[in-house]
């Protein structure tokens, strides 16, 4: 008997369906591990080093190892606050610390203030077990809610003869998601649109606020798991030598990426229609992503006239978005990007020089009406200027300073 049951025609689609479902379950388990143990870019661990600690009650100063507190205030209180940006309490589960010299005779409390209670902060006594662990969980405290604008530690009961304390750091740990939250988080990351970045949507970077997983990775993992499960259920050494199931698996993965891409294109189409429908070309630029500097570029084009002019656009980073977009908006003028100019640049009288702010290798000698590029100078006349954006000059003559 040559495995007649396994080679039955109805077993083949069942093996494929089992592979697809098994890969889906396996991918969910892997995602659960990633979302439970990896750091969310939108809710990173907040680490406050010694330089970010402020002593608001007591006497002390910064040292090489940390914030050294020599003595408490007259009421026996030492209060250390961390410099933080406001954050939502629901996103963080508790506070950790590193303190050297704290003994059991002194009381340790965590203190925090919310946007609604800046004048009356909350505090919580830290238990002996929490002190030994160096971490206090705050999610079960009803006052740990809202926008937290300040957090710190208070040491109560210090006498004048007590040993100095060394505060080395504070750490706010983000809350780990529950299992029921993983699928919504993964779905939100999958459908998050990074906008027009100039890169493939399948290779978007995990920058601040972005998802934790690039969209291509779960698809590749799912395809690999499905192919492996199908290989085990329908091995070629038992007569299953068709490549069709593996082609179906790859097709499903490709369709998942393409459907995601098409969905984003439809969303971007709606956004584009709402922003630009019915507007002329110049009006679209004034409400688009370049609205901050396009009016100034339009003024430059009006000043230069309609005949093409050679423009030397000098920027601290010639490859930056702003420099390249300015070059685009200045077409049909002949724009050359550079970080500086010298005698080999080929600048001639009548050319225009556009200095984009900020600059670090160029100076404008207003008294002599010259642009200074190291030892090389250009005699220019100022044509147009906009604070924070740049200045347009016309080259009148080229000179070299001895």
Care to describe what's here?
It comes from Allochromatium tepidum. This is DUF4350 domain-containing protein. The protein has helices spanning about 10-35, 130-135, 180-190, 215-235, 245-275, 280-285, 295-305, 320-330, and strands at about 45-50, 55, 60, 65-70, 75-80, 85-90, 90-100, 105-115, 120-125, 135, 145-155, 165-175, 310-315, 335-340, 350-355, 365, 370-375, 375-385, 390-400. By secondary structure, the chain is of the alpha+beta class. The strands form three sheets. It has a seven-stranded mixed β-sheet, with helices on both faces. The radius of gyration is 32 Å and the shape is flat. It starts with 10 loop residues before the first helix and ends with a strand.
Mean pLDDT: 87
Number of domains: 3
Order of secondary-structure elements: HEEEEEEEEEHEEEHHHHHEHEEEEEE
Number of helices: 8
What would you report as the Rg, rounded to the nearest angstrom?
32 Å
Order of strands, main sheet, comes to 14-13-15-19-18-17-16
Annotated CATH topology of the largest domain: Jelly Rolls
The CATH architecture of the largest domain can be given as Sandwich
The geometry reads as flat
Work out the helicity level. 25-40%
**Distance separating the two termini:** 99 Å
Beta-strand share of residues:
25-35%
Keywords: Membrane, Transmembrane, Transmembrane helix
Protein name: DUF4350 domain-containing protein
Transmembrane segments: 14-37, 216-237
């Amino acid at each position: 008997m040559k495995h007649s049951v396994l080679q039955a025609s109805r077993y083949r689609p069942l093996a494929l369906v089992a592979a697809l479902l098994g890969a889906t379950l396996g991918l969910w388990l892997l995602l659960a591990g990633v979302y439970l143990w990896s750091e969310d870019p939108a809710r990173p661990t907040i680490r406050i080093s010694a330089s970010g600690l402020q002593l608001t009650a007591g006497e002390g100063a910064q040292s090489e190892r940390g914030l050294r507190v020599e003595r408490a205030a007259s009421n026996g209180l030492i209060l250390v606050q961390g410099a933080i940006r406001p954050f939502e309490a629901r996103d963080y589960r508790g506070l950790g610390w590193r303190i050297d010299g704290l003994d059991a005779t002194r009381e340790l409390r965590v203190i925090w203030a919310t946007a609604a209670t800046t004048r009356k902060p909350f505090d919580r006594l830290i238990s002996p077990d929490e002190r030994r662990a160096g971490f206090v969980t705050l999610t079960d405290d009803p006052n740990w809610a809202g926008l937290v604008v300040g957090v710190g530690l208070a040491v109560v009961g210090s006498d004048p003869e007590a040993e100095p304390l060394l505060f080395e750091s504070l750490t706010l740990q983000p809350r780990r998601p529950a299992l029921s939250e993983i699928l919504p988080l993964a779905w939100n990351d999958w459908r998050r649109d990074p906008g027009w970045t100039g890169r493939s949507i399948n290779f978007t970077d995990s920058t601040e606020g972005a998802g934790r997983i690039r969209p291509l990775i779960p698809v590749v993992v799912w395809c690999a798991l499905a192919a492996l499960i199908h290989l085990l259920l329908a091995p070629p050494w038992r007569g299953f030598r068709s490549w069709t199931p593996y082609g179906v698996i790859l097709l499903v993965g490709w369709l998942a990426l393409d459907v995601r891409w098409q969905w984003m294109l439809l969303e971007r189409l709606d956004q584009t229609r709402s922003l630009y429908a019915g507007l002329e070309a110049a009006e679209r630029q004034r409400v688009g992503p370049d609205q901050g500097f396009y009016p100034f570029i339009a003024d430059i084009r009006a000043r230069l006239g309609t005949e093409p002019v050679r423009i030397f656009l000098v920027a601290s980073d010639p490859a930056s978005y702003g420099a390249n977009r300015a070059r685009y908006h200045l077409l049909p003028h002949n724009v050359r990007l550079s970080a500086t100019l010298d005698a080999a640049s080929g600048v001639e009288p009548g050319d225009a020089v556009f200095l984009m702010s900020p600059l670090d290798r160029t100076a404008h000698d207003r008294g002599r009406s010259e642009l200074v590029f190291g030892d090389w100078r250009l005699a220019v006349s100022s044509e147009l200027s906009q604070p924070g954006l740049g200045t347009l000059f016309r080259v009148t003559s080229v000179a070299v300073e001895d």
